[in-house]
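Because discrete structure vocabularies remain unfamiliar, it helps to consider an illustrative case, giving the amino acid sequence and backbone structure tokens:
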Amino acid sequence: MKAQLPAEIDDYRDYHWRREGTQQVETAFDAERFIEHVGFAACLTDSRRPGPSLYVAVCGRRDAVLPRNVQKDPEASSTWLLKDDLVKRGKVYYAKLARGKATFLAPRMIPYFHAIWGVRKAEEKTRLSKNARAVLKVLRGEWEMATSDLRDESGVKDRAAFTRAMDELQAAMIVVPSEVYYVPKFTYIWTLGVGKFPDQLLKRVNRETALREIARCFLASAGMTVPGELARVTGLSRSDAGLGNHALVDEGYASRLAPGTYELTNGVGRVARGFQPSVTEDV
């Protein structure tokens, strides 16, 4: 379901999410500044999904939609190449996180996402699958490995099983890609996330703080959140998203307009006071 937002909120999002031609992302430096500003962003989602997106920022327009054949789309190709540059530069966090969605995190947001979705070493035996633990054991010994070598050394040689194991380790915020090569064949180089972002991943944050700060981060760039939106963007449950938003209301950072609908208390000038979300089918 997609809520029809006030025009002022859409304009606010256009500015913060780089949905304007004058602000579109063109370089890796632009992309890093964009991710640092919004805190977290999807890689290749389009206007049919809520939340900041690198692809939409590259397009620089609100109505950007991925074509069916993304390989031949210049904007999708530019986004993909920028993703490769960002992975290599290593200044922002990139991995498939909640619900398997490729996501960028600004370093300041890593501790909060890790507090919700991260798996600490003491929990690995109970929370990770056998295949994921086998891959992780090899990677901890070698530190960096290409996909094919890691598959052979771990003994998880079935491609589908290996992919599931890597997705699991990324979602647990343990493993991240560190480089991408296309010659002589396409492959990722994998490494441990703690090696690239040790301070952020070793920082202890309680769950309540993490929910509040994730909600704050989204609301700061969105201006308003409507029922289910924060959960859909982040992968949080709706109850956890509600807890985060309620904490912002308690401290005066956000105002509750209706059940599940919150806006910045001062950030957008209270443009939507009295707003009731009008819901239409999301295409």
